[in-house]
Every structure is written in C-alpha cells, then in structure tokens.
Design a protein that fits this description.
It is built from three helices and five strands. By secondary structure, the protein is an alpha/beta fold.
C-alpha cells in the first residue's frame, strides 16, 4: 500500500501529485490552504485508477468547487473511501445530496464509504 499524507499551499501542488507521476499511490490525504483557478498547464484528465482512498480538506473557502474540485473527483473512478471537508464560498446553491450524487458519486461505482462536511458560505448581505 502506498499512502501519502501531505499539506500543500495551492491546488496546483495537489494537481502535480495527481498528474500520473505517482500512479501507484493508493491512499492520499491532502490538506490545501487555497483552491483557486489553476495557474499551471497540468494534465488534469489522467484517470487515477489505483487511488482507492482520498481525503481532501481545505483551510480556506474556495470559489472553485465546480471548476476544480468536481472535475478532480471525477477522475477517481475506483475510490472506495472518500472524505471531503470543504469550505465553499459564493456558490449560488447549496451542495446537497442530489448534487453530490449526480455530479460526483455516480462516477465512483466502487465507493463504499463517504464522509463529508461541506460548508457553503454566502458573502452576500441583503439589506432591507
């Protein structure tokens, strides 16, 4: 079993780990300080066929959930365990069970365990 526990600054650091160079990795637990639009031209299409467990924790809110996180998770079709601890900012809708099922979980037929804490933060303040 090849396992990696790592703290990284940006999503680019995470994508570098998942660009195919470490294709024997089975378990990845990653804490990311910031998830913004990727600044690098990194192959983000490589299917992570050997990855069976993935834990993603964000320290700061991200507005790139739909553009970065969802496509990344869809590459993990053989996951058996998925853990997400996310702060998502300024998204027009809450991330609910229907969204999770239709956008992510349907792409993971082997998934047995899913633990998540996804907080949606809306910075819009309405004044009456």
């Amino acid at each position: 079993m090849i396992k990696l526990d790592v703290n990284v600054r940006t999503i680019d650091d995470c994508l570098r780990l998942l660009d195919g160079r470490f294709n024997q990795m089975k378990i990845l637990n990653i804490i990311i300080d910031s998830i913004d639009t990727s600044l690098l031209n990194i192959d983000n299409q490589y299917i992570l066929s050997n990855l069976t467990a993935f834990c993603l924790t964000t320290r700061n809110p991200t507005q790139e959930y739909d553009n970065v996180i969802v496509p990344l998770l869809r590459r993990m079709e053989n996951l058996e365990t998925l853990m997400l601890f996310l702060l998502v900012g300024n998204r027009p809708e809450f991330i609910d069970d229907v969204h999770l099922s239709e956008e992510i979980l349907i792409h993971m037929p082997r998934l047995e365990k899913f633990i998540f804490d996804i907080t949606t933060i809306d910075d819009v303040v309405e004044i009456d």
